[in-house]
Amino acid sequence: MTDTATTNKPPSDPVHEDGSPERLAIDTIRTLAMDAVQKANSGHPGTPMALAPVGYTLWSKFLRTDPDAPHWPNRDRFVLSVGHASMLLYALLHLAQVKEVDRDGKPTGKPAISLEDIENFRQLGSKTPGHPEYRHTTGVETTTGPLGQGCGNSVGMAIAERWLAARYNRDGFAIFDHDVYNLCGDGDMMEGVSAEAASLAGHLKLSNLCWIYDSNHISIEGGTDLAFDEDVGERFLAYGWNVIHVDDANDCNALADAFEAFRQTDDKPTLIVVHSVIGWGSPRAGTAKAHGEALGEDNVRITKEAYGWPDKQFYVPDGVAEAFNKAIADRGRPLREEWESLFARYKTAHPDLAAEVEHMLAGTLPDGWDADIPTFDADAKGLASRDAGGKVLNAIVPKVPWLLGGSADLAPSTKTDIKGAPSFEANDYDGTNFHFGVREHGMGAIVNGMTLSGLRGYGSTFFVFLDYMRPPVRLSALMEIGAVWVYTHDSIGVGEDGPTHQPIEQLAMLRATPGIDTIRPGDANEVAEAWRATVTDGGHPTALVLSRQAMPTLDRTKYAGAEGVAKGAYVLADSDDPEVILIGTGSELALVAEAHEKLKAEGVRSRVVSMPSWYRFELQSDDYKQSVFPDGITARLAVEMGGELGWDRYVGRRGRTITMSTFGASAPIAKLADKFGFTVDNVVKVAKEMLETK
């Protein structure tokens, strides 16, 4: 491949001559990217410049979307996994004249991306942040930043379309039949999450999925041959993908042929390997510079000369945006209007299914969705909260069938399988149980993609393996989507499996993440209320942290009802004029309740607070917080088989914790409880010590 980035002559363009409408649109995308990055003095101009023909060809000739209705449910999805190339997406949205909609899906009358927005690239409060952000900018289908996440999201979106089509399409009613396009690069291909997602996509034969791989052989440090020289196409053939090579990213005819070949492929996903030269036409800028920083004013000027472009900033020639919009809208608008008419007839022909679709798209729930959630009788032996969680989940899914997910090869342990339901597989896209394989990171990104498509996706694994899927969990919070993360084996209660499987710091990490509701329920009825709260509140992700070991089911005729979970913390048991507060979560709740009874027998007035969710508690009024934690009671003891970090917020300067300051150990749980102080006697001892030192 010729390194044209160091010459004045642009790479060959076998389709469009200078001055043609197509070439004008492509060069407009390129120059907008250069100007935006140059003005911000921050960003990545090279990839948008090199891939402008790819974006133009896909959007103008193939992508089924309507700029006037960017949230049309059956639109094709375009994912920019190379999020650092955000100016490519912003330029496409601007030239397509996509209309902005607000958070409720209502049109605002404004463009999604105006020219002024592009001029404010990467500035505070702009609609053009450095990496695309879902909800922040209309037309952005997912937040992509960490490389590989968009790849995983796109697989989740393709899975969602297949499930939606299998469940809701009927003869004469193709309600869902859209495709998913994902633009990725060398960095994505180096990240393991993309390999996990691609492997599963090949296994599932997701023929509605197309990845466009920009093979430009450049990364931040220099040429990719420093660390990456595999044959990606051969790897994807081994995954079971259709692989197409386009030798020149400027060859729009070859690109169109490749996209058409994808559209004709019905038994496997497609990878289009596009060979590009990053930042082409920039005569003095090295390729690494074109990738990672502004070109410099001289290089911008000389590059524009190479394009035959006027020496103007943020210049959009007359008619370019109108023509680009027309090409997209003339295809997408009739399809959207036809779909709306089809769905209106579908509501008459299949009212029950249509009602499900409407609930799913609106984020609402059918009447009586929680009617079958079980209540659990008091039981000193009880059951593990993972077992209670499985029972509750199985009671909800028949009423909310778009609550879908599975496990990273651990469903028998996480209890997230739906009994009697088929698996989602290549020969049965109507299945309910998803099998992500031992791919925690890929599972997380895929679940996000499913949720972005209207489903309530959930993924489950052991709590300690949160470390293997941290980026998509964080991104679910950043996007404010209702993904559900089910984590079992939540503490040193895992026992003999030892410290490699015993989470310590994971609770603190989740609680430190803005926007995630982390709930660690203390008995089976708290689990039921935790799931009820999770399904009800779909505007943010929830992490359900559940035990492997059995815990007593508390007697709710003796203690407060579990509905207090909805407020994050509540008084479980009390005394007249309490002098010490015992706080428990998860399996430690029954422990502090027992300690409360022993203290009471010894004449010590204690209060027990169940605190399954810090997130929910912080949403309550100051009056409610005071009712749970009165300022006058400074003797407070938190008991939790996790790290201490953060508990000072609730126990105060004079309070204490019984928590973990080290990793665990391999031993039966009773031995571990003795070793680390999680016993009734120790809770009583520490509580008394606090009172003695007041």
Can you put this structure into words, describing what you see?
The protein has 694 residues and is α/β, with parallel strands linked by helices. The chain folds into 3 domains: 4-336, Rossmann fold, CATH 3.40.50; 379-552, 3-Layer(aba) Sandwich (Rossmann fold), CATH 3.40.50; 561-692, Rossmann fold, CATH 3.40.50. It has 25 helices and 22 strands. The protein has a 6-stranded parallel beta sheet, sandwiched between helices. The model is unreliable at 1-15 and 280-290 (pLDDT under 50).
Based on the model shown, name its key terms.
3 domains, single chain, Rossmann fold, alpha/beta, 694 residues, 15% strand, 6-stranded parallel sheet, disordered N terminus, 22 strands
SSE blueprint and pairings:
Blueprint: H1 21-40, H2 46-61, E1 77-80, H3 86-95, E2 99-101, E3 107-111, H4 115-119, H5 149-168, E4 180-185, H6 186-190, H7 192-204, E5 209-215, E6 218-219, E7 222-223, H8 232-239, E8 242-246, H9 252-264, E9 270-275, H10 287-292, H11 297-307, H12 320-349, H13 351-362, E10 379-384, H14 385-396, E11 403-407, H15 411-414, E12 433-435, H16 440-452, E13 456-462, H17 470-479, E14 484-488, H18 506-511, E15 517-519, H19 524-536, E16 542-545, E17 550-553, E18 570-573, E19 580-584, H20 588-601, E20 606-610, H21 614-618, H22 622-628, E21 636-643, H23 648-651, E22 656-660, H24 669-676, H25 680-692
Parallel strand pairs: 1-4, 4-5, 5-9, 8-9, 11-12, 11-13, 13-14, 14-16, 15-16, 19-20, 19-21, 21-22
Antiparallel strand pairs: 2-3, 6-7, 10-17, 18-20
Helix pairs in contact: 1-2, 1-3, 1-11, 1-12, 2-3, 2-9, 2-12, 5-7, 5-16, 7-16, 12-13, 14-19, 16-17, 20-25
